[in-house]
Structure formats: structure tokens, C-alpha cells
UniProtKB/TrEMBL annotation:
Protein name (record): HTR-like protein
Keywords: Phosphoprotein
Originating organism: Halalkalicoccus jeotgali (strain DSM 18796 / CECT 7217 / JCM 14584 / KCTC 4019 / B3)
Phylogenetic classification of the source organism: Archaea, Methanobacteriati, Methanobacteriota, Stenosarchaea group, Halobacteria
SUPFAM superfamilies given in the database record: CheY-like, PYP-like sensor domain (PAS domain)
Superkingdom of source: Archaea
UniProt keyword annotation of Signal present: no
């Protein structure tokens, strides 16, 4: 059995395609990646769960979505039962819109869609590096669940929003689709997002915290928010409204 270096990171990669597993191992373990890691590969999510319990000191998990017997979200939910803060990334060919709500509710650390060529592995290296430096979850300290999910296109206009997301701002989902994201925030918050939130998302892949939303009737509210960069230039946003007790306790 390989032993982890004192400064190294142990990554467990789960994908039913052994050829892809070999490529991920090659790209992440090479010296040029800068990760100083070793990659353990499994083609079965069940075997991967057993390996997590073998005491090998795994620091991060990368998982596919479509796998025999258990999909990536089901795998993540099982991991979270015993390892609530272990960074888990989904590296999958699945269309993000189809799994966006599941990603948020299950507590995924990050998502990267598989692509063509070597750029996808370069991006994966960056995402893994950020994940192992984080606390393993999108927003583990949040006192409320991030229930509503919306997706903003690379043109900064909403492509879709679920009912919960839209209702936070006083709209129906169809009314949010096509709006520019700035229409859902007061002017002073738009400036803050442009100067403080988006640069963090571009550099690190995700941002979580509190911001101020603007409802359709002109009123404002405090929201708990996660903004995550997707690999195709879009943004996935999860949000929930904070009630007055949460806001006062944080003051």
C-alpha cells in the first residue's frame, strides 16, 4: 500500500470508466500539477465507500454522477453520513441544470463538467486545490438550508430558476428567466457583488455568505447565498431568505 507524504494529499477518485481514472491519476499526480498528491482509483461507489473507512486518511473525493448501483448524489449522501466535512467534487458529463438542486441539497463541495482535451484536468486540479483548502461544504455553517436554485448564463441573464428561488424575490420562475441578475438586488448590493463576490468566484470557484435581495414590490431582505462558477461560464446560485432572528444573532 502506498503511504502518503507528510505534506501530501490523498484523493479518492470514483468513476466506472477505468481509462478516465488513469488519466485523472496521471494529471493530478504529476509534479506540474502542484498538488503533491496521490490518487486512489475505484470503479465502484460501494468499493469507494469501503475504502473511505479503511483509515487511509483520504483528504478529498472526486466522483462521477452516472455509475452502476449508485449515482454520484446518492454516493455523496452516503459519504456525508460519516464524513460531513470531507470535500467531495462531482466530475461528470451530466448537464448541470439536471442536477443543480440535488447538488445544493446534498452538500457537494464543487462540480465540474467533463469536457474534451486536457483543459478539463487543469480545471480539476484548481478545483481540488481549492476544495482541500476549504471546509468541505458549500456553506456548512449556514443556519438555514439553501433551498432555491437559479442558473445565470455567461451573458449575466437568468436561464432558469426554481419556484423557491423565484418566490424569494416575489416572482414566478418564468418571470425570473431572462432577467439580468442585477434586477434582483438593490443598487448598493450590485456594486458589492461586482467588486467583492464575482472576483472571488472567478478565482476560487465559489463564494458563500450573506447579501441583500430586492423583491418585485421594491422591498429588500437579507439572504444566505452561494454562488458557484460552472465550467462553461455560467453561475449556479443557491439562496434562502434569512429571518430576523438569524440576522440579529449575526450582528
Amino acid at each position: 500500500m502506498e503511504s502518503e507524504g507528510s505534506d501530501g494529499v490523498t484523493i479518492l477518485h470514483v468513476d466506472d470508466d477505468p481509462a478516465l481514472g488513469g488519466l485523472v491519476k496521471t494529471f493530478l499526480e504529476r509534479e506540474a500539477s502542484g498538488l503533491e498528491c496521490r490518487v486512489l482509483s475505484e470503479t465502484s461507489p460501494v468499493d469507494a465507500l469501503e475504502r473511505l473507512d479503511d483509515g487511509e486518511g483520504i483528504d478529498c473525493v472526486i466522483s462521477d454522477y452516472r455509475m452502476p448501483g449508485m449515482n454520484g448524489i446518492e454516493f455523496l449522501e452516503t459519504v456525508r453520513e460519516d464524513h460531513p466535512e470531507l470535500p467531495v467534487l462531482l466530475f461528470s458529463g451530466e448537464e448541470t441544470n439536471a442536477v443543480a438542486a440535488e447538488i445544493i441539497h446534498a452538500g457537494l463541495t464543487d462540480y465540474l463538467r467533463k469536457g474534451m482535451g486536457t483543459d478539463q484536468y487543469t480545471m480539476l486540479i484548481r478545483r481540488v486545490g481549492h476544495a482541500v483548502d476549504s471546509d468541505g461544504r458549500f456553506d456548512p455553517a449556514a443556519e438555514t438550508e439553501l433551498d432555491g436554485v437559479g442558473v445565470v448564463g455567461s451573458d449575466e441573464f437568468f436561464e432558469r430558476a426554481d419556484e423557491t428561488y423565484a418566490s424569494c424575490y416575489g416572482y414566478a420562475p418564468d418571470d425570473v428567466a431572462g432577467k439580468h441578475w442585477t434586477e434582483l438586488h438593490p443598487e448598493w448590493e450590485v456594486e458589492h457583488i461586482r467588486t467583492h463576490v464575482l472576483p472571488v468566484v472567478r478565482e476560487q470557484g465559489t463564494w458563500s455568505g450573506r447579501s441583500e435581495g430586492l423583491r418585485s414590490d421594491g422591498s429588500t431582505f437579507v439572504e444566505s447565498k452561494l454562488v458557484s462558477a460552472l465550467d462553461d461560464g455560467r453561475l449556479m446560485i443557491a439562496v434562502s431568505e434569512l429571518d430576523e432572528s438569524h440576522v440579529e444573532n449575526a450582528a
